[in-house]
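With this grant's support, we have settled on a layout for protein records. One resulting record is reproduced below.
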Amino acid sequence: MSPGQSLMVAGARNRGFTLIELLVAITIMALLAVLSWRGLDGMARAQAQTSQRADEVLTLQAGLAQWKVDLDALTQTPNVNSLDWDGRVLRLTRRTAAAGDGLLVVAWTRRMDAGGQWLRWQSPVLRTAGGWKEAWSRATYWAQNASVEDRAREVRVTPLEDWQIFYFRSNAWTNPLSSSNGSPEAATVAAAAAVGSSPVPDGVRLVLTLPPSQAISGKLTLDWVRPTLGGDKS
């Protein structure tokens, strides 16, 4: 090989990347970066959605558990309504967690000004008949047009499209609003309500219609059975 040929080979070996080669390499790296970012973004979105769905399920479970706790703690005190459903709000009078500490008025409703949310409201601890009457009436007003103070005492459970309540009496599930059917039991219930008290039904059926946007959608039915005289199991 001549000296001139040796210089040409050495020059070819020392030649760097051309501008076109650099642009192609940068373009490929940019495409890989975009694809990687989209993959990471998709994973992050999926993880966030899974976490949101899990939170919705846990919140619904907590709300249903609280529903059962409220019904289990129903009190049957003379001249005090234990349970009342008017088609809009379910009001109940229950014992506090500490026996003998007083009573609570609890209300459940679905209010449109809250975006169709299923809500729970609870009064302060009540120790007088006057305090109970005021809280019982206040629960009705809260379900229709809640004040700022009442909103501070409410808890949002889950969005609902609709909800229904049924009572189990005389071995049948019936609509509480159609109890006045002339039967002896209906007369007993009406008489009890007239003197300011109402008997607790043998069971309460809750039917929730959950929207498609929720982790659990469609109709959900939960039955509660009145605890026996021997214990507080339902």
In short: Residues 6-10, 180-196, 229-234 have pLDDT under 50 and may be disordered. The CA atoms of residues 105 and 134 lie 10 Å apart. The longest helix spans residues 19-72. The first strand starts at residue 83 and ends at 85.
